[in-house]
Amino acid sequence: MEVHLEEAKAILATTPSSITKLLDGLPEVWIDCREAPGTFSPRDVLGHLIYGEQVDWIPRARIILEQGESRPFDPFDRAGFQQFIAGKSVDELLATFSALRKENLKTLDALKLQPAMLDRTGTHPALGRVTLGQLIATWAVHDLGHIAQIVRVMSRRYRDAVGPWRAYLPILDIPSGNS
Amino acid sequence: MEVHLEEAKAILATTPSSITKLLDGLPEVWIDCREAPGTFSPRDVLGHLIYGEQVDWIPRARIILEQGESRPFDPFDRAGFQQFIAGKSVDELLATFSALRKENLKTLDALKLQPAMLDRTGTHPALGRVTLGQLIATWAVHDLGHIAQIVRVMSRRYRDAVGPWRAYLPILDIPSGNS
Questions:
Q1: What is the value of pTM for the model shown?
Q2: What ipTM was predicted for this assembly?
Q3: SS3 breakdown of chain B: % helix, strand, coil, rounded to 5?
Q4: Which end of chain A is more exposed for a tag (fewer CB within 10 A), N or C?
């Protein structure tokens, strides 16, 4: 199926509060755990989502609308958030993500996208031709993927603690990684 | 690592509000979507979590503490919630889950579990000998697994809509299923 703008926006609008409820008030052991060295902790995921709001989604939508395929998107550094999150509390990061997302959804509304505009095309530096509709669907699925990552990374701490129940908990055997 | 009671309770306490934020106010297309016939929709997951609060976790903890290995747990029907959720709104189901979880955490506190008691054993009808600590770790990981399932099932609706970005969204290629 194709992306449906209002449906996708409903996801984008709920993600900050979903992640806030997931992480807010949890012991830091859950916030900073990771599956393996070099993979994202829940805190890192939050940084990565913030960085996407700052430099990725809306700038790419604008490039598609203003320059089409002629101007490839800037590559996105998946770990470009490191400096930004250093020394910040989880509360600060959650507030920043929520504020940026709210602002970006306002910007998206201001673009007054009509269904036909979702077929407009741009150039991804690695993937080639993509449409604005695909970008918006990806933005929403990217949120969902990182929520899944947060809970997967957290669950991994108890992979041994569950004992024989591991056989019934497939989340414990999803391959680790940075998404 | 072993389960840590307070850490696990922190997860158990946040799950109802996390899932509420994830689902509350979303268009019904997201609430009722499923990966394939016979698999859980987000609404079904909520029913399954409610049923676990009603008949699974606390009753099993009590069996371990009161009867040990001599009395195997009752088998848990993963789809035993169907009748309960029929005709109920998502808001009602979210409220029921939140209320039951709150009550069960009070019951858990009332058991005044000491670390040594987490080694007490019971008999799972299929898995054999399990400990109370494993039961509690499983309760928390089970929550996380079903949050991951909800977002995975939702993301699957846009598996095609993301176009070439699918290569960067591994959540779209996790095998489907009822957990």
A1: 0.96
A2: 0.96
A3: 65, 5, 30
A4: N
